[in-house]
Protein: Carbon-monoxide dehydrogenase small subunit
Amino acid sequence: MPTISMTVNGKSVSGEAEGRTLLVSFLREELGLTGTHVGCDTSQCGACIVHVDGQSVKACTMFAAEAEGAQVTTIEGMANPDGSLGVIQQAFQDNHGLQCGFCTPGMVMTAADLLKNNPNPSEKEVREYLEGNLCRCTGYHNIVKSILAAAATMRGEQVAAE
Structure:
């Protein structure tokens, strides 16, 4: 089996993978990074979103070999260096932006991509950006509230959680 090398969450890693191995499987099974979830295997739910070279990617639609030499960020890489929750993760906790938590990694990664490109989104823009992410238990209200709170925090504004 070929060896694939990439940088994941700032660390150089390598592992073996067949040509047909999906990036999500490589991350979970070969590297032990199980925060990226497999929800549908059809690119419908967004639970597997990671960032590859700064772009949001549904890891169930990309072969691991395609990430050879790439910079990959997973939900584990969203934490602060000391292991505490990052701004977006903390906003999800503070604003009850999760219930079962299955979709949360993809939601956080999507939020990070949105806020990188638009640091002051409207509620409508957040909802539109989440279009490729499915949540079966929250109704999205608190997810949107969490993303707006994270955006405010990242802009240096004080935010009171409800």
About this structure: The chain is about 30% helix and 15% strand. The radius of gyration is 16 Å.
